[in-house]
Amino acid sequence: MRSTSQISERDAPFQLRGNSFTVMVLKLMAPDDPSFFPQLLSKIRQAPNFFRNAPVVLDLEDLEEGAGPADFIDFVVTLRQNSLIPVGIQGGTPAQQAAAFEAGLTVMPTGRPSREPERDFQRPAPGRAPTDPLPPRTPAPMAEAAPEFQKTTMIITEPVRSGRQIYAARGDLIVLGPVSAGAELLADGNIHVYSSLRGRALAGISGDTAARIFCHSLEAELVSIAGLYRVSEDLDASVFKKQVHIYLDDGYLRMDPLS
């Protein structure tokens, strides 16, 4: 016999569930700079499909008192006009948080890197310093030591189709088949793809800067190690469709062909 609570839950018109979602972090360094939106629009044009209707959290941690957007509501409207959807902020002074709240944004907790690290859509030369105003390459929490955990390994033997997301929590992810465009691989540790990688691969998403990505044919839409990103437009001919080893070296995202 079912309890009253079971019947009530079945008949309810909604359910409340916890979940995790991919969210981009846009770190505001000088939001009132006249070149802010022209530079932002230039970056969006590099990967329009990637940015289209992308949820965004605004990082105010490095802004001083009174240094936020002059008009938060206008700032949010302009972001929406440029295909970004602001959903919240992190950091900021009480006055900045109040202004953001009036603009319809929530205040997000800080202190732990988000599932989706901050993205870099600038075409970087190898070894270039991470100085772009949008988005920052290395958020402050990434500088801290990665959390310690008992590593595990997840092995996927079948192809990973478009629209599928696989997350290897607390360990490495090994994929034996091809990864289609539109698929997403996430791991707290390393990612190995023993075939073509055409989707997204994000390793070290909990802040492990020692994480690495290995693949037999790099054709990815996006690759990331602990918050540093490259998109397909940034891939050099020397690594495109090649066996590649991707890792961080002194704060830079390196891509080396495997001999």
Structure description:
The protein is an alpha/beta fold and 259 residues long. It has 5 helices and 15 strands. It has a 6-stranded mixed sheet, with no helix packed on it. Strands 6-8-10-12-13 form a 5-stranded mixed sheet, with no helix packed on it. The radius of gyration is 20 Å and the shape is globular. It starts with a helix and ends with a strand. The model is unreliable at 111-147 (pLDDT under 50).
Short descriptors:
alpha/beta; 5-stranded mixed beta sheet
Alpha-beta classification? alpha/beta
**Rg calc:** 20 Å
Order of helices and strands: HEHHEHEHEEEEEEEEEEEE
User: How helical, in percent, are the residues?
Assistant: 10-25%
The count of DSSP E runs of length 2 or more, i.e. the number of strands, is 15
Note the beta-strand portion.
Answer: 25-35%
Oligomer: single chain
Roughly how many Å apart are the termini?
65 Å
What is the count of DSSP helices, taking H or I runs of 4+ residues?
A: 5
Task: Based on Cα principal axes, name the global outline.
Answer: globular
Question: Going across the major beta sheet, what is the strand order?
Answer: 5-7-9-11-14-15
The largest sheet is: 6 strands, mixed
**Poorly predicted segments:** 111-147
User: pLDDT average, as an integer?
Assistant: 78
